């Protein structure tokens, strides 16, 4: 009979078994490994690794916590129970570059370099964990997740050409309306493609056009199609996908999309009903219902389908960025329809105005949980005595209608019902000038919402003037950007103290990860600072990152790493929300670590590490230490 393992060694073995990548080692290796480790205890503030020295051990944290700081004393990593460090020095032949010190009394296990290298050499799965940096591991994890979702992603990426089931039914622009109606009836189609003699697309005629442009206006059937068709209709390229078609329909409020070749020849038409067949509870279908609703009550009933839409998108394997755009398109449609209904009740607006939104709706990044962040941008012709009551009533109607549709009231009262956010163009310019010139604590808080600003309805030139002012005022303003960067770094990824994660320690969501405020928001903040520094007008985070790369504010690798990190964190977040909905619970952003798969747990850590690294780089670029 083999001798039993010492109790203390057995306890170490069980500890290692719960850690990645040690859990990938064969049982016999785990049995032998504890005896090869050396336990060492360090007091709080004691250095473990000192720049300029040598290190020939892999350190495993059994209890306590350790921080690693770079050459300029910037925080590079904060590590807790179960995490390892010292790898970089081993890979560099033992040379220590960064300082690692205990931030509380800490018990460490030290694995000799020779043993570490032997395990890496014999077990590929063990070596894989240490070979790439976190960003590379995350990129490979993303590819692995996409491979797992091939079938689902295939549906969202389905080429629209594969949905074209019949030949194009076309008519000439000089044909009569009567001929067009007869052809639609004979062919049983809801639209006709209007094309020239050489086959080039000129327009589209739909059954809605016949109702609204012919019957409703009392036109005769002998008038020609060219007089009532929609010229230069929104179309799709041959390489477009199902998701492209859905977004185009939602953004342009159309139900028919010609699929057009490079020669501008229509090869088919994708309709809203075609998309509904591929995804019964779709955002396109929901938006159609919203636009036909006759009041907030009908809209609220339609919005009961939104959770199912979210679940379908997640289960189809849609990228989180696409999910955000589709869910936001629903929110935009709610706002637009409510404004139309409000004007039916209150009458047309006495002066030009814009309905603008902030936060995640402005960025096209909404998920299953959203509050209201909105405002009114009024023309400078605004007179409080003559116009004040109209816009106050409009704001109240919008607030109540949005709440009925599931958008809860903003806890900070950043809504158009607050007179502070119902202002003229000149006043809004004053606001932004003050926030930029005097970035105090309140101003920095407000910028996190109002610097993400997008018009949903209204006078486009009015909004363009405000955007121009914001960009011109903030670009190159290094003092303001330094304050913005400092404020951005107050949101830190939840990495380091509780088995790799920092959990909420009290309240309703105790012992969970907040994947919004501690996961996504730090990336959103970094992208906002980078966009303002580069003079970009983009508000979507992915677009902001792309523009910051072009301007050199964030390195190419840094941008790609942040994009991967945001996609992965949001992917985990959306899957959690979909599971909650399917189990009859409300979607939220709080996930217990036990709900995470091994895959998600390990690569969330990589994503958070990426964010911390870029935060450090941004802090150095804008000399954040001077303003913290």
Tags for this entry?
628 residues; alpha+beta; Jelly Rolls; CBS-domain; Beta Polymerase, domain 2; 4-stranded antiparallel β-sheet; 22 strands; 15% strand; globular; DUF294_put_nucleoTrafse_sb-bd; [protein-PII] uridylyltransferase activity; CBS domain; Diverse_CBS-Domain
Oligomer: single chain
Radius of gyration in whole Å, from Cα?
29 Å
**The CATH homology group name of the domain at 283-431:** Beta Polymerase, domain 2
In the CATH hierarchy, what is the class of the domain at 283-431? Alpha Beta
Our count of helices gives 25
Alpha-beta classification: alpha+beta
Summarize model confidence as the mean pLDDT: 87
Question: What is the makeup of the main sheet?
Answer: 4 strands, antiparallel
Biggest sheet: strand arrangement: 1-8-3-6
Shape: globular
Percentage beta strand: 5-15%
Percent helix, as a range, is: 40-55%
Instruction: Give the CATH topology of the domain at 283-431.
Output: Beta Polymerase, domain 2
Flag low-confidence runs.
150-154
CATH architecture name of the domain at 283-431: 2-Layer Sandwich
Work out the number of β strands: 22
Spatial gap, N to C terminus = 64 Å
GO molecular function: [protein-PII] uridylyltransferase activity
Organism: Magnetofaba australis IT-1
Protein name: Putative cyclic nucleotide-binding protein
Domain Cyclic nucleotide-binding: 21-119
């Amino acid at each position: 009979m083999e001798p039993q393992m010492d109790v203390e060694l057995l306890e170490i073995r069980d500890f290692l078994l719960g850690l990645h990548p040690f859990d990938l080692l064969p049982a016999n290796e785990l049995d032998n490994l504890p005896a090869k480790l050396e336990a060492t205890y360090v007091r709080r503030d004691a250095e473990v690794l000192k720049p300029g020295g040598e290190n020939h051990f892999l350190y495993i944290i059994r209890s306590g916590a350790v921080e690693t700081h770079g050459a300029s004393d910037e925080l590079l990593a904060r590590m807790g129970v179960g995490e390892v460090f010292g790898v970089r020095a081993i890979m560099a032949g033992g040379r220590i570059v960064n300082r690692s010190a205990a931030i509380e009394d800490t018990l460490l296990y030290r694995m000799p370099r020779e043993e570490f290298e032997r395990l890496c050499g014999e077990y590929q799965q063990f070596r894989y964990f240490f070979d790439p940096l976190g960003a590379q591991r995350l990129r490979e994890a993303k590819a692995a997740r996409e491979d797992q979702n091939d079938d689902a992603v295939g549906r969202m990426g389905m080429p629209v050409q594969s949905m074209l089931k019949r030949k194009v039914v076309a008519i000439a622009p000089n044909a009569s309306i009567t001929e067009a109606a007869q052809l639609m009836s004979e062919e049983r189609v809801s639209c006709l493609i209007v094309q020239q003699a050489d086959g080039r697309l000129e327009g589209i005629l739909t059954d809605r056009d016949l109702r609204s442009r012919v019957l409703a206006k009392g036109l005769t059937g002998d008038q020609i199609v060219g007089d009532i068709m929609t010229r230069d209709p929104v179309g799709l390229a041959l390489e477009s996908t199902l998701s492209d078609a859905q977004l185009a329909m939602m953004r342009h409020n159309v139900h028919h999309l010609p699929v057009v070749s490079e020669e501008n020849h229509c090869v088919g038409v994708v309709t809203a009903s075609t998309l509904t067949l591929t995804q019964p509870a779709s955002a396109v279908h929901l938006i159609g219902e919203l636009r036909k609703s006759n009041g907030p009550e009908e809209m609220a009933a339609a919005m009961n389908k939104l959770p199912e839409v979210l679940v379908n998108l997640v289960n189809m394997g849609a990228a989180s960025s696409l999910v955000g755009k589709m869910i936001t398109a629903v929110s935009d449609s709610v706002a637009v329809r409510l404004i139309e209904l409000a004007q039916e009740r209150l009458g047309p607006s006495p002066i030009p105005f814009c309905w603008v939104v902030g936060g995640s709706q402005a960025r096209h990044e909404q998920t299953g949980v959203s509050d209201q962040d909105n405002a009114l941008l009024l023309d400078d012709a605004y007179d409080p005595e003559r116009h004040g009551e109209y816009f106050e009533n409009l704001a109240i109607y919008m607030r109540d209608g949005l709440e009925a549709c599931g958008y809860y009231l903003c806890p900070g009262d950043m809504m158009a019902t607050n007179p502070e956010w119902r202002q003229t163009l000149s006043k809004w310019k004053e606001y932004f000038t003050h926030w930029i010139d005097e970035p105090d604590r309140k101003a920095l808080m407000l910028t996190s919402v109002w610097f993400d600003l997008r018009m949903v309805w209204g006078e486009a030139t009015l909004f363009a003037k405000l955007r121009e002012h914001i960009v011109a005022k903030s670009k190159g303003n290094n003092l303001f950007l330094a304050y913005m960067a400092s404020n951005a770094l107050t949101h830190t990824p939840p990495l380091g103290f509780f088995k790799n994660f920092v959990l909420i320690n009290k309240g309703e969501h105790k012992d969970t990860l907040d994947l919004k405020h501690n996961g996504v928001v730090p990336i959103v903040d970094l992208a906002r600072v980078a966009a303002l520094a580069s003079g970009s007008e983009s508000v979507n985070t992915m677009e902001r990152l792309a523009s910051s790369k072009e301007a050199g504010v964030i390195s190419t690798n840094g941008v790609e790493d942040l994009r991967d990190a945001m996609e992965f964190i949001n992917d985990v977040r959306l899957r959690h929300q979909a599971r909650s909905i399917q189990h009859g619970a409300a979607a939220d952003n709080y996930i217990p670590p036990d709900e995470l798969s091994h895959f998600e747990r390990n690569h969330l850590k990589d994503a958070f590490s990426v964010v911390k690294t870029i935060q450090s780089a941004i802090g150095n670029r804008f000399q954040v230490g001077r303003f913290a």
